Amino acid sequence: MKFIILFIAIHCSFNLATCKSIELLTINLQPIEIHEMIRFSEQKPNTLQVISNEEDILIITNAINSAKKMAGKPDIADPHYQLELGENNYYLWINQDNTATIMNVNDTNTIYKIYAAEKLISTIQQ
């Protein structure tokens, strides 16, 4: 009996957490601005792309949320893109192995790897 009650409690908690996450993403759906970059802090002229489609925003947001912190201090080439998501700005690199690397512009000492980034890449490069 205790096992059944514990299972139901865990199941309900998981469902509530999942619903709350989805609700937060839905509430915070703001257009995403994407610029191609020449080098750090220099955007390529006339390359602004605004993503306002909900599905595309969720693809980008979920990719960023799934990024894994990489160890060590980054020594990295100039970024391919800059993404502006509300108050957050990121540099983005597209890698040849269908992964991506992302860095918060306010924390240039830390990079994050996005594995299985095919949807992210196709959304940004459309």
Walkthrough of the structure:
The protein is α+β, with helices and mostly antiparallel strands. Helix content is 36%, strand content 28%. The protein is built from three helices and eight strands; from the N terminus they run H-E-E-E-H-E-E-E-E-E-H. It has helices spanning 2-27, 54-65, 118-124, and strands spanning 32-39, 42-43, 49-51, 68-69, 81-85, 88-94, 100-104, 112-114. Strands 1, 2, 3, 4, 5, 6, 7 and 8 form an eight-stranded antiparallel sheet that branches. The longest helix is centred in the N-terminal third of the chain and has 26 residues, at 2-27. The radius of gyration is 18 Å and the shape is globular. It starts with a helix and ends with a helix. The model is unreliable at 1-27 (pLDDT under 50).
Task: Write a concise synopsis of the structure shown.
It is built from three helices and eight strands. The protein has 126 residues and is an alpha+beta fold. Strands 1, 2, 3, 4, 5, 6, 7 and 8 form an eight-stranded antiparallel beta sheet that branches.
Overall geometry: globular
Largest sheet: 8 strands, antiparallel
Q: Residue share in helices?
A: 25-40%
Number of domains: 2
Number of helices: 3
Please trace the helix and strand order, writing H or E for each element.
HEEEHEEEEEH
Percent strand: 25-35%
Number of strands: 8
Structural class: alpha+beta
Low-confidence stretches: 1-27
End-to-end separation in angstroms reads 54 Å
Give average pLDDT, whole number.
81
